[in-house]
Amino acid sequence: MNKSDSKLDGRPGSKPDDKSNGALSLPKPPGNPPESASRKREGGAGGSRGTGGPGGLAGFWPRLASLTRKEIRQLLRDPGSLAIGIGLPLVLILIFGFGLSLDVRNAPVAVVLEDPSPMAVDVIAGLELSPYISPVVVISMHDTERLMLERKVDAIVRVPSDFSRNLAAGDARLQVLVHGTEASRALIIRSYLNLALSQWTQRQAERGRMAEPAAAAASRTGMVVPVERMWFNAANTSTWYLVPGLIVLIMTLVGAFLTAMVMAREWERGTLEALFVSPVRPNEILLAKIIPYFLMGMLGLGMCLVAAQFLFEVPMYGSLLILLGSSMLYLLVALGIGLLISSVTRNQFLASQVALLSSFMPALMLSGFMFDLRNVPVVIQWIGKALPATYFMELIRTLYLAGNVWPLIFKNCAILATYAISLLALARLVTRKRLD
Amino acid sequence: MLDFLRRIASLCRKELLAIFKDPANRVILIVPSLVESFLFGYAATYDLTNVPYALLDQSGGIHAAELVARLDGSGVFHRAATLRTQKEIADVIDAGKALVVVQIGQRFEQQLNEGGMAPVQLILDARNSNTAGSAAAYIGGIIEGYNATLQSGAAPPLPQITVESRAWYNPNLETRWNLLPGLIASLSMIQTLMLSALSVARERENGTFDQLLVTPFSPMEVMIGKAIPSIMIGLTQSTIVMMVALFWFRIPMAGSLVTLYTGLTLFTVASVGLGLSISAVSANMQQAMLYTFMLIMPLILLSGLATPVRNMPEFLQIATLINPLRFAIDLVQRVYLEGVGLLTVIHDLIPLLIISAITLPLAAWLFRHRLL
Fold it and tell me: Does A176 contact B141 at a Cβ distance shorter than 8 Å?
């Protein structure tokens, strides 16, 4: 409803400007009473500023202003768009911040102690110390296998009955069985188990060294001990890398998905053609479309920043200004993709599917958000490196967790700017062609 | 009864015609699930394959060289840089040139020869804490192996423990093996939800839904006629993804196809019920699409596809109990990888039944409700 209203009152003010100088538009009697009065005043103001200049430019600002006002109203009165633009980001923040975690804590592990000797118990004691594992001692292997089938435990550590005898002889075997269905979790649990069990050898070596006379100790070769230091994420929690990455997802959602869908609806319903026959220029239509969604994207960014800061307490080492600047760049890229998709498909359903497949899913799966690009096959790496989201992801994680790494900032911002300019130019090109 | 079936059949035919007449639909129903299953099959991996590391060897001794040779020979780590001073560490890590810097101190040889503990510093770029953790564990394993060789040469041999680990159902612990069975359920859900949500909304927008309701069909029949084509398409898509998993990625199927399809059919019915309910409450296509999208995101994220449900906090684990996808993924993974029978996954089937029993009558009721 409001769409046609604002279109109607958008026209009388700007039409005369287009044909001649704005000054001429003043005496022209306004057709529609109160609504268009303000519009006309604006048109006049713009015109007087531009007297002598080319006629088209004269009405640019008032036309843009009224178009933008129309678009913002349209956005605010559409509950569906608001839900995607504001509701969904909120849900995503909460789910990603609280719900998704790759960290393993207190994984239930069954220990089958077929050899209850003190030495075996000593070896197993290493498991108790690990914060990642909570061991449960079970006697029979049969029961344990049932626990594993029911997924009550994630792994089984089996100490065979001849364990201490073999250990005294110098070489003992321990069996570790992990439930492999959730591969990532299983991998982590396995490495924690291996670590906890092997530490016994180290403890033993240390004890032996203390007991031994110095001469004997000197003849022995020492041990290599790895000392880990996790830079940028000392707590080793996945929240710290998921929450900053979420900014990328939300901007893609608002910029590409929502914009593509809403624009495609206008194409489908023909309301965009109605705009085209009015004196507004394609440039102005595109700009007026971009502005509200840009603002909405920035709102999403704001929500992410606040949540990261106060809810999840992710530290930020880089500069906030650079973060804001690069986010704006990426938002323009996403908007360019959205506008392009909508102009090419001109169909809501198709546009939403294409936007989902070409922007949102890749941003989720191929940008390094969840899966590290270093581990994927070369072809997938190429696809990942062709995506603007990958560069923004890298940039935002660096800004959050590492700080201002200037070479990386310059490189990635340059790439994003190139994408933004070319995508928006392309969107503009496609829109004009269809107009003629 | 025969009459009833004939009416349903003609409704289904009409619905399928409406779907497949649109060339865009034909593409969108087949291509995405194919592309996505290939893409995710290759991209979604937590396994380390190629980790750039930088070496700062301040000892220059023989033991250090041996240890580094093992690292280089692992096939996973490749040396991106060789550093000379400690100051360079920050540069390579910051710029992302190396995921890990291995620093071997000046006294390394001496400490080893004296029989003491010789620390090796691992400085990891934990911007992606998951990769960093795996890399640290991997290097830890290599060092462990090296220690064992060192000790075996010692005069009175120290007791050694060999840990033999084996993984059930997924011997090499490949992420792909649990992801692709998960995709069998989730990719088809995205499309069936979207399709069934749009089916009524489209007719409503075009005004043909009222025409449908003035025909002698009862709302229940209309709903069944809408549901069956969506279920068929959903099952077809599951089959496509399963084929990719089975024949392209060669993930062996341990369970029976009958069990798998029983579970999948039940799941598809549940998601179509969900889609039709959305459809019934939305006034036009755009609303239906938005609602579906709003729903799909949490459903997928909280299903255990990307991260295990058991890693989630308690209250979210409870929330996942109304998520049909959570049960479907558990079911497909267990049947596909573990080869369990229907009775073992009964705890997955019952919730799916309950969800279908609520959503389908609800959708039918909502159809009628709208008309009044």
Answer: no
Dihedral of CA A102/A103/A105/A111: which sign? positive
Q: pLDDT digit string (tens) for A293-311?
A: 999 999 989 998 998 888 8
Interface test with B, best of A93, A153, A372 (most B CBs within 10 A): A372
Residue range of the domain that includes B220: 2-44+174-371
Instruction: With CB atoms and an 8 Å threshold, state whether B96 touches A398.
Output: yes
The residue assigned the tokens 């005004």 is: B207
Single-letter residue type at A239: T
The number of beta carbons lying within 10 Å of the beta carbon of residue A234 is 12
Q: Nearest CA to CA, how far is A197 from chain B (Å)?
A: 8
Nearest-angstrom CA–CA distance, B278 and B287: 9
A172 has which bridge partners?
A: B161
Q: What would the pLDDT profile of B71-85 be if each residue is shown by its tens digit?
A: 888 888 888 888 888
B260, part of any domain: yes
Q: Is A252 helix (H, G, I), strand (E, B) or coil?
A: helix
In angstroms, the CA A19 to CA A28 distance is 13
Domains and CATH numbers, chain A: 72-97+238-435 (no CATH), 107-219 (3.40.1710.10)
Tell the burial category of B23 from Cβ atoms under 10 Å away from its Cβ (0-12, 13-18, 19+).
Answer: exposed
Q: For residues A106 and A63, what is the distance between their CA atoms, to the nearest angstrom?
A: 62
- CA distance linking residue B364 with residue B358, whole number of Å: 11
Distance of CA A359 to the CA centre of its chain: 11
Contact A172 B161 (CB under 8 A): yes
State whether A384 and B43 contact (CB < 8 Å): yes
ipTM of this predicted structure: 0.78
Listing from the earlier edge strand, what are the strands of the sheet with A171-179? A133-138, A107-113, A155-159, A171-179, B160-168
Question: Under DSSP, is residue A426 helix (H, G, I), strand (E, B) or coil?
Answer: helix
**For chain B, what's the residue count?**
372
